[in-house]
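Morning!

This is the sequence you dropped in the shared folder:
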Amino acid sequence: SLEADFDALSTRSTMVGSAQIDTITQELSELRRQIPQTDDATKANTLQQASLAMISISAEAARGRPFVLGHQQLTTALPNNTLVNGLAPYARKGVPTHNQLTAQFSILRQSTLEEATSAEGIEPNWVDQVFGDNVRVKRTASTPLVETLEAAEALLEDGDLEATIARLDTLPTGSAQQFDVWIADAQDRIDLAQRLDSLR
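The structure's back. Tokens below.
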């Protein structure tokens, strides 16, 4: 390494005559210039590798896909980094996007309301009987469950996942269980976004 060469030349300078001191002094001066340049080049190369890995990770994460290769590259560029290590679970499985979470929420909301209606013993109206699943009629009756889900949906449409999760936490136990997986996925999306922002 340059440091080893530097030490060797320093030792030689104490063992030779005055005729060679000038030459050794010049070599030492050159090595002094090269050592910081080498450090700067290494840092620049590391930064470039990390930046390329982040571009790859961000692109895959934005699509809800795993990003194993990008994570491996980032780990190589930034070893023993806590934020990088924390990406490992998401790198293997991927995390649903906000649009995917919104679509899933809509399905869960519909099924939750249908189950609640069935549990209350409400008979289907004539539209349901005649047209079946071909027509969806929004029930106008307002209940705490309906109000909570509508409020959560509005927060989700505004892009506020944290507030959506907080609102869903107020659901009755039976209804809340249907959203357990969704909430876990939404929390993963929040955590992933925060980690990527910090790394950037």
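Headline: DSSP finds eleven helices and no strands in the chain.

More detail when I'm at my desk.
O.
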